[in-house]
Each structure stands twice: as structure tokens, then as C-alpha cells.
Specification:
Layout: H1 10-23, E1 29-32, H2 35-43, E2 55-58, H3 63-66, H4 69-79, E3 85-88, H5 102-107, E4 111-114, H6 118-127, E5 133-139, H7 144-157, E6 162-169, H8 171-180, E7 188-192, H9 193-199, H10 205-210, E8 215-218, H11 222-237, E9 243-245, H12 257-266, E10 267-274, E11 278-287, H13 296-300, H14 315-320, H15 351-357
Parallel strand pairs: 1-2, 1-7, 3-4, 3-5, 5-6, 7-8, 8-9
Antiparallel strand pairs: 6-11, 10-11
Helix pairs in contact: 1-11, 2-15, 6-7, 7-12
């Protein structure tokens, strides 16, 4: 398949690995900020094939995983309301809240439905005018344009029974928080190609310059990642700190401007709490005041809910890149994909799930 098979060529992979080994003269620490990239790195064993001393730190690249427990509990509280139709992508249904998950609400009689697009939720609101329909809007900049379009369509149709529970986060502020941490060991980043396909990479240029850190926009196939790592190491070896675009087949410097305009119309930038990291200024999106009528938090008055993490789960350390799943005492025993303690073991982009699916043991 074009743009797929050629990025899984084993001969080219061996060539890139050989060049990487010849280029690296000292240990380097890189971080990928994308759960999809994490799964490829771990599933293909790329992280174990790197030159001696070089390591990949798995960052907060899973949008499901960084969604705070409070947001999950708010979703559960809304979904349990009589008459509410609560809609979400499937990967959120098994993320544990303080006491149960959305599947538990469904099992107890709540009307929780999986949708494949936020516009499905809008169409559902049209078909069920007598019932409130809520969509759980989670993700990085990648999913924000489609969610913005859903709000614009609901406004165009004059729907008063549609609302959105928003928990969007933005990648550049999280990278800034990592770089400014006193415990930071990251010397270069692989930036998420799908986020940059929407936003471009202009926002990364000041980060590379200010923190003297190479950033390589990278795709998701094995050769994408090997080439992205090689480009980052070449920069480090020659003391360059630039933004490079490995994912040229999908990403432009300015990104998708139409998608950006829709986001700017519907959302406003705000401080957001990241699971495992904490509160980061200007790192999230909320509905702009002119679309406040579609804000599920306001409509259902759930913004005061507090939550407590399971003390056995070290998801915070994993999301910060300061620990790996196999260092967790619950990994593979009390915490498995069937019975997860935390989001990183649930999501298809979670680091714990990646390690477990790859058979990594403690």
C-alpha cells in the first residue's frame, strides 16, 4: 500500500539503524510526544535497537491518558443523569474514574453511546429533540477542528439539546513544561505528525531556539521514527537546534489554516490540568463565551467535582517520562488492559498498554 509498505521496509530500517550508530558519538535522550509513535517504537522494538546509551523517553502523548481524573468523573456524573444521551469515542469508555467508568454507567442503565464523529452526536441531537445529548470532546489539536465543526453545526441548526464536555489540551505548552522542569533530561523531541498536520510547526520554532533543543516533526511508521531519530541526533551531534520536518508527505509549516480558523472561532485558550503533570498555563481549550450555551460543564453544573487517583498507579511518573511501566508494582498484575488502574493501560495510545501488548515484563 502506497505510503505504508515503503515505510516498513526492513532493508531500509537496517540502513537507517547503521547510519544512526555511525552518527551517534555519545548517549542522547529523546522524547516522542505521541502515543501512536510510542506504540510503534515499543511494538517494533526500535527503542531496544538504538545505539548503546541512547534512550527514548515516552512523553505525555496520549490524549486519553492526560485527561484528568476530574474530567472523567464529570463525564460519568453527566452520563448517569436520567434522560441524558452521553456520546464519546470508544477509547474513553473504559478509562477508570474514582469509582467506576462510563461502561459501568452503561451497565447500570445509562444511555452511553460510542460515536465515530462528533457530527454523529449532532445528528443524534436532531433525531432526539426531547433529550439532552452530550459529546465528550477529548484530545490534542488533532481532534479539535472536528469538534469545533460540530459546535458550529449545532449553532447553525439552533439545537438547544446538544452540548459538549471539553477537555482539549495543546502540545507546545506541555513541551515547555517538560523543558523547564528541574528534573528534565530530554535533549531532543520527536513532534507528533498528526498534530502538526493541523497546526504546522511555527509554534515549535521559538521552543527550539529558546531551549536549544532540536525538534523533528515525525510520522508513525517504523522508518518515519528511525529517520526522525536520526535527524534529531544529527542536530545534537553538530550543536544545531532547529525544527525539521521528516513527515513532509503530510505536514506543511503553516498546517491546515481552515481547521485553525474553525478552532479559533469556537474555542478559547485556557489553563488546563494535565494528569500526571499538573496545571499548565494556556495549555488547553475551552468553549469561547459566545458558544457557552453548548458547554456541558455549565449546563449540568459539574465543575466542582473532586477526584483522587488510585495510590497504586504511577501514571503521573509515566506521563512525565520519569518512569516506565515495568517499574510499576501493579503493572501486569493488579493493572492489566482488562482491569486497568489508570488511563495509560486503557488507551490504544497509552504507554502501559504498549508495553503490555509487546510482552515487556517487569
Amino acid at each position: 500500500m502506497r505510503y505504508l509498505d515503503e515505510y516498513r521496509d526492513p532493508a531500509l530500517a537496517r540502513t537507517l539503524l547503521a547510519e544512526l550508530c555511525a552518527t551517534a558519538t555519545r548517549p542522547w535522550t529523546l522524547m516522542e510526544v505521541c502515543g501512536g509513535q510510542t506504540h510503534t517504537l515499543v511494538r517494533q522494538g526500535i527503542d531496544e535497537l538504538l545505539p548503546a546509551g541512547m534512550r527514548m523517553v515516552h512523553g505525555p502523548g496520549c490524549p486519553v491518558c492526560v485527561t484528568p481524573l476530574q474530567a472523567i468523573d464529570r463525564a460519568i456524573a453527566i452520563a448517569a443523569r436520567p434522560g441524558v444521551i452521553f456520546t464519546s469515542f470508544g477509547d474513553m469508555l473504559r478509562v477508570p474514574g474514582s469509582e467506576r467508568d462510563l461502561l459501568g454507567v452503561k451497565a447500570s442503565g445509562g444511555d452511553v453511546r460510542v460515536v465515530y464523529s462528533p457530527l454523529d452526536a449532532v445528528r443524534l441531537a436532531v433525531a432526539e429533540p426531547g433529550r439532552p445529548v452530550v459529546f465528550f470532546a477529548v484530545g490534542f489539536e488533532t481532534t479539535a477542528p472536528a469538534n469545533a465543526m460540530a459546535v458550529l453545526e449545532a449553532a447553525r441548526l439552533g439545537l438547544d439539546n446538544f452540548s459538549m464536555l471539553v477537555s482539549h489540551v495543546l502540545v507546545p505548552p506541555a513541551m515547555t513544561a517538560i523543558l523547564e522542569s528541574e528534573h528534565n533530561e530530554v535533549q531532543g523531541f520527536l513532534a507528533a505528525g498528526h498534530v502538526c498536520a493541523v497546526m504546522g510547526w511555527r509554534a515549535y520554532e521559538p521552543l527550539a531556539a529558546k531551549y536549544r533543543t532540536p525538534i523533528v516533526v515525525t510520522g508513525f511508521e517504523p522508518l518515519d521514527l528511525l529517520e526522525g531519530i536520526l535527524l534529531a541526533v544529527r542536530q545534537l551531534e553538530t550543536s544545531r537546534c532547529e525544527v525539521e520536518n521528516q513527515y513532509a508527505r503530510a505536514v506543511l509549516r503553516d498546517g491546515n489554516t481552515a481547521a485553525q480558523h474553525a478552532m479559533a472561532e469556537v474555542f478559547a485558550v485556557a489553563t488546563r490540568y494535565w494528569r500526571g503533570i499538573g496545571s499548565i498555563p494556556d495549555s488547553g481549550l475551552v468553549l469561547a463565551e459566545r458558544y457557552a450555551a453548548f458547554d456541558a460543564e455549565r449546563r449540568f453544573d459539574v465543575d466542582g467535582l473532586d477526584a483522587a487517583e488510585d495510590p497504586r498507579c504511577i501514571a503521573g511518573a509515566i506521563l512525565r517520562g520519569s518512569a516506565v511501566p515495568t517499574e510499576c508494582g501493579a503493572y501486569g498484575t493488579a493493572c492489566t488492559p482488562r482491569h486497568p488502574l489508570g488511563a495509560p493501560m486503557v488507551s490504544t495510545e497509552g504507554t502501559c498498554a504498549a508495553f503490555h501488548l509487546a510482552g515487556r515484563s517487569r
